[in-house]
Amino acid sequence: MVSSPHEAMHRIFQEYPGLFSRVSDVLGVAFAPPSSATVMPTDLTENRPLERRVDTLLRIDTQDDETFLLAIEAQGKRDLDKPASWAYYLSYLHTKYRLPPLLLVVCQDRATAEWASHQVPIGPRQWPALTLRPLVAGPHNMPVITDVAEARKDLALAALAAITHAGNPDIGAILKTLSAALREAPEAIVDPIVELTAQGLGNRPAAQQWRNLVAVDLSFYKSPLSEEIRDEGRAEGIARAILLLLAQAGIDVPDEARERIMSCSDLDTLSSWLLRAPAAMSIEDVFATK
Fold this sequence. Notes:
By secondary structure, the protein is α/β, with parallel strands linked by helices. The protein is 50% helix and 13% strand. The chain has helices at 5-15, 19-26, 82-97, 110-116, 148-153, 155-164, 171-182, 187-201, 205-215, 224-248, 255-263, 267-276, 283-287; strands at 34-39, 56-62, 67-75, 101-107, 120-122, 130-132, 135-137. The strands form two sheets. Strands 1-2-3-4-7 form a five-stranded mixed sheet, with helices on both faces. A two-stranded antiparallel sheet has the order 5-6.
């Protein structure tokens, strides 16, 4: 499973295009809910050896009969070259599709979000020809959702809020709220949110908290993440059974062998060791390849 917060922060809009109208409300800019949304090609490369790709690009048709292009960029840190790239994206999209483009930048830390929020004038100071004005969603303006009823009203928004608050000291409560809110939701909605939340948390400590919450009720969660956790649980159970059988047989298990057994995640290998354990005379018999 890919575990990239960068991917989750823009892919969630591909899974739930209607999320943008709710995020824009949070950001204080009103856009009507979409009547349809189309995922567009993200390659903005021209016929030159310079490749440019926006993270996610959606064509949004709203219920107010408005149509625009939504370019979504996940930004992990300050990058002084990005404003020029973003301005290029918007100009290129306007030229190619003849539709008004809008840039949404999603961040996970306040400093990056505040930097990305700055308007960037392009042109002479006396008369800038263009001004880059991205919408920015981040921990500085996304809601901290710790009420289950509120989270249930908009699960996609609750998931994105949790991702943007990955470094928040209250992330445990935020994730617990999201997990509880998912329990009565349809599987088609739950599975992507479980995965995208795990992806968005990356390798932060909160990622393990999320895994623990997902593991609480594996009969409910059927996503790839839950399958991974379920396999981990099976592996640990088999490993402990092997060690118990060896202990009952009075076979010495050095620390290195114990670590090898407990750290093994391959169920087939563990099963073969388990079958050998009752008849083994030594630890070498368990690990024998024939």
